[in-house]
TrEMBL record:
Residues 434-451 have a biased composition (Low complexity). Keywords: Ammonia transport, Membrane, Transmembrane, Transmembrane helix, Transport. This is Ammonium transporter. Its main location: membrane. It comes from Jiangella asiatica. GO terms for cellular component: plasma membrane. The chain crosses the membrane at residues 6-27, 39-57, 94-115, 127-147, 167-188, 200-220, 232-253, 260-280, 286-306, 318-337, 357-382. The lineage of its organism: Bacteria, Bacillati, Actinomycetota, Actinomycetes, Jiangellales. Pfam families: Ammonium_transp (PF00909). It is a multi-pass membrane protein. One of its GO terms (molecular function) is ammonium channel activity. Signal peptide: none annotated.
Length: 464
């Protein structure tokens, strides 16, 4: 065991964990004031659910001995992390339990990312159920495809095909982006989609969240070197270069298109650059990272408005930023990779031919297709059984009040239409009566929270 490597991965694990609260702030600021609590709870809910499953069987599916020709690991091999507390159990130069914790934070943030596509309209409890199912049948196997290496006997994308994904462009971002698109289609558009601006209610929260994401991403990318070494240093510098370039590219396109360079655009550019460099940070030189950042920032800033033309309601642009950004970064390796970088592979522009480009396209396409199809089926099943989308009236009142009984801001109030309020209160009363009738007479029977007539303003300038 190397104490320096161990110390760095301990720090990196904490940094990646910080990305989930950072995402909660980023997403929370982007939604309306009446949905901020729910949006944050979806991120923290993913943290809770996936942490439990990762300990039980998630790590084993992702990194257990391959049992399916590169498709998944043995779920029983490390069930409950059995046998991994032995001091002699090492992953490279660090304790295996530390590697378990580090990779577990990747699983958490991937699930949390998906939630941005269904803001304002998802049932919280169904979301938790979705997180458990999706983590089990989508993320854990895909993590095995990409991250499990065993001298050619590991995951089929990373170890057998030879596609490069240093820190999760496919397993995290394309995976989450494709899932977000599928869920957005299953749940449908918000009731007032396209009828008015859905502006962020709190831009300072968005900027703070973006800053925390950037900070945490150093652990995400540089920590994926699994050591305090030169590979980590290259990944860190390339992350800075691509992210800065993407932010500038985004706001330049925004200025040319809309006449303004906005803080929302800057924050989106930051996340886009981070996403794009994630798979490529060990394969490019710093100039290549700058080029990638510019290309990703420009493309994603143009793609972001396609949802209005194509009429799919990806609430917080998970598709434009994570799916498209992940595709750009993953495929760009086939063009911009240089053998001088730690990955040691030349792309097309450095005389490497089309081989690596082909591997990148196959890997990216496989994850996209698998995630989209399976997620659509999961979402469809949950919508038809327990219900995934909230009622229209609940959407008007706000998911915070109806599902959580809370408001993000008790500093002002705006009245809810009387007819909507009456329907919501009648529904809550009916549920409470049904619960009481079905109980054994205990005083503590749970009743659905009653919506109040007032809801917070909190800077929410979007239409109700």
């Amino acid at each position: 065991m190397d104490t320096g490597d161990t110390a760095w991965i301990l720090v990196s694990t904490a940094l990646v964990m910080l990305m989930t609260p950072g995402l909660a702030l980023f997403y929370g600021g982007m939604v309306r004031a009446k949905s901020v609590i729910n949006m944050m709870m979806m991120s923290f809910g993913a943290l809770g659910v996936i942490s439990v499953l990762w300990v039980l069987y998630g790590y084993s599916i992702a990194f257990g001995e391959d049992v399916g020709g590169g498709l998944l690991g043995d779920p029983s091999e490390f069930f409950g992390l059995s046998g991994l507390m032995d001091p002699e159990a090492l992953s490279g130069t660090i304790p295996t339990m530390l590697f378990v914790g580090f990779q577990g934070m990747f699983a958490v943030i991937t699930v949390a990312l998906v939630s941005g596509s269904i803001a304002d309209r998802a049932n919280f409890w169904t979301w938790l159920l979705f997180a458990a199912i999706w983590g089990t049948v989508v993320y854990f196997p895909v993590a095995h495809w990409v991250f499990a290496f065993a001298d050619g006997d590991g995951g089929w994308i990373g170890d057998r095909l030879g596609a490069i994904d240093f820190a999760g462009g496919t397993a995290v971002h394309i995976n989450a982006g494709a899932a977000g698109l599928a869920l957005a289609l299953v749940l449908g558009r918000r009731r007032d989609f396209g009828k008015g601006a859905h502006r962020p209610h709190n831009l300072p929260l968005v900027m703070l969240g973006a800053g925390l994401l950037w900070f945490g991403w150093f652990g995400f990318n540089a920590g994926s070197a699994v050591g305090a070494n030169g590979v980590a240093a290259v990944a860190l510098v390339n992350t800075v270069a691509a992210t800065g370039a993407a932010m500038i590219a985004w706001i330049v396109v925004e200025k040319m298109r809309d006449g303004h360079a906005t803080s929302m655009g800057a924050a989106s550019g930051v996340v886009t650059g981070l996403v794009a460099i994630t798979p490529a940070c060990s394969a490019l030189n710093p100039i290549g990272s700058l080029i990638l950042g510019v290309v990703a920032g420009a493309i994603c800033s143009l793609v972001v408005n396609l949802k209005f033309r194509l009429r799919y309601d990806d609430s917080l642009d998970v598709v434009a930023v994570h799916l498209v950004g992940g595709l750009v970064g993953t495929i760009a390796i086939g063009f911009l990779a240089t053998a001088d970088a730690p990955a040691g592979v030349d792309g097309l522009f450095f005389g490497g031919g089309f081989d690596q480009l082909g591997r990148q396209i196959v890997g990216a396409g496989a994850v996209l297709a698998y995630s989209f199809v399976v997620t659509y089926l999961i979402g469809w099943f949950l919508q038809r059984t327990v219900g995934f989308r909230i009622d229209d009236d609940h959407e008007v009142v706000g998911v915070d009040r109806v599902h959580h009984g809370e408001s993000g801001y008790e500093i002002g109030a705006e009245e809810v239409p009387d007819d909507v309020l009456a329907r919501v209160e009648a529904s809550a009363a009916a549920k409470a009566a049904a619960a009481e009738a079905g109980s054994t007479g205990s005083v503590g029977s749970a009743a659905a929270p009653t919506a109040t007539k007032e809801r917070p303003v909190g800077g929410d300038v979007a239409t109700a």
